[in-house]
Protein: proline--tRNA ligase
Amino acid sequence: PSPAPPSRMSEEATEGIAAMSVSDSDLSSNPIVVKLDDLGIPHRTYSHVPCVTAEELVTNVPLDPATTNETHTKNLFLKDKKHGLFLLTVKPDAEVNTKAVGKALGLEGKVNLRLATEELLNETLGCAKGCVGPLAVMNDTEKKVTLVLDERLLSSDVTKIHSHPLRNDASTVLTPADLRAFLDKVGVEPTVLPFPRQGEEKEEEGAANAAKWDGKAPANRPHADKPAKKGGGGGQPQQKKDNKDRKTAKKGETLLALRWKKSENFAMWYSDVIVLSEMISYYDISGCYILRPWSYKIWEYIQDWFNVKIKELDVENAYFPLFVSQDRLEKEKDHVEGFAPEVAWVTKSGDGTLAKPIAVRPTSETIMYPAFSDWIKSHRDLPLKLNQWSNVVRWEFKDPTPFLRSREFLWQEGHTAHASYDDANVMVRQALELYRGVYEDLLAVPVIPGYKTEKEKFAGGYQTTTVEAYIPMSGRAIQGATSHNLGQNFGKMFDIKYQDEKGESQIAWQTSWGLTTRTIGVMIMVHGDDSGLVLPPAIAPLQAVIVPIVSKKCTMEQLGPYCDKILASLKAAGLRAKFDDREMYNPGWKYNHWEQKGVPVRIEVGPRDMEGEQARVVVRHSGEKADYKLDVLADTVKGMMDGIQAAMFAKAKATRDEHVTKVTKWEEFVPELEKNNLVLTPWCGGEHKDWEEWVKDKSREESLAARGEEGEDERAATSVAAKTLCIPFDQP
Structure:
């Protein structure tokens, strides 16, 4: 991988912040700064006079009066003999009542939170007294510390948070969203509690305010659904207490509820959804993620559908090696230049250094095509149509995002060779039509098919086609999948020749086309809501879940056989269904759990339903409810699947279409983009790359001016500049 980019250091001290002798190089090598850079999280780190306490920071490092919505932090490292270690990060003016904090955390028995020793601080968080901040939790590799955040730090009133990066003569500045992103990526789930301002409430009132959860674990408390581990600290209640919390959770409430609304903080909502719905787990290498069974099943359904379709086109599956030699990778100049910044290289084997570095595949053209050259000798060997399901590594340094932008991802890549340009072009369009089908027919996400411009086409290819999706909440488009006509360029480079029917030597025409797990991320962003995932039935791992409503009067033993009967009828109708017979969770908890996971239909069964031989059906995407008799229930639910799929697509398409606007005057171009619209404009032709670049530069300039900003972070995954998406096949 390429070296990490330098951290964004302030060139001069902010007004009111005294400059110190700490050099930029000292700060750029700071472990916190290095980690933030590695994770691609925007930040700023500056030096100032040494400040051990929050009071000293407020006095000696005053923040610009014009930015009163920025704040320093006060940090307390506490220990309780029974419940473990806690790091409290609050606003400097917060009143910290350890007794109230203990109650709000749901700590059982005798609670005695006291300041921990400096030796313990250094051992667990790797810093000295007066140098700690919330970012220090990255050093807590054994997860002994529970991080507790003041909810006022995460409110909309705060735009920037200043905290020590393991030293007291510097501060690192992050937005609340970026702080949460950092914590997510280092595997720390903070507990968020309300802390009153000093003097705002009496001690007793403060305790009452902090104990809003009636002694139960807070909704976003880490490991709230797991038993405490020995040495884990963090104040996790024991399993008995956990089960009590689950059973006493109110209807319509779960201890793992989303903390962010989609419309208020889209990025953090997305992070919440993919973790809490059990789609993703974070890994200790930035940009790499664990696909949990719930998301991998969706990928398997896409694979199953796609394999059937490509086999109808006489495409066969194969597998090629993960590694490619430097000589092969660099054989096609334009191609390697397009991927060079993202290529990961293997340079060592054990303790020895390899004679030549080996690349981990960023794509497989240069891996497959030498074999094509060996296999193709005659026109009778054509067409050759292969597909492989594999993983790819592209060492992105822009902000990694699960499913959408990661350093390793799963995909299928098709590679074919043909006797003519026309045959190759037919294959290109057939593959693209399959991609349209994946998005629209499986994922219920509308896309716009079209050609990429010369500037945006695949490196080394002749022509690129694409399907472009739209994310309403961010107002941005995202490339869904691409299919490339490679022309004869790679055939010339790799000597892929054949003898035609006249005995003359010809160069093969080639195609390549790929679809990735990005599809899943796009689907989540388009359909998800404030309760979690909303899954189209075509790819939902479960299409229906049965939730029994048990009580002391009607136990699981009484209700279970009736639910089993319903389950059997659903499976017989060809539905993917489950009976949730877990007795440690109450019905309200289960409702929220399965809503969060996006199951299209929930079937509620209570004692009256059993008596009346019926069940209540609740549709996830619309919230519609209706009761159906048992003899028609399975067929009714089966019939709902197509209707739900169509309704989800229609809703997404209507939203997308509302945001497609035609513009023929430049003065209307940027304002329409700022309205989160896709803009359809006249096109002067691929030969005019200079005008395409002019539009990009000019739109960035005008967008920044309209926002009152001077520039944008070069490492940001998205830009305010206009990007040419495609030349739609369907032209007005």
Observations:
- Residues 90 and 725 are 44 Å apart (CA to CA).
- Residues 1-25, 201-255 have pLDDT under 50 and may be disordered.
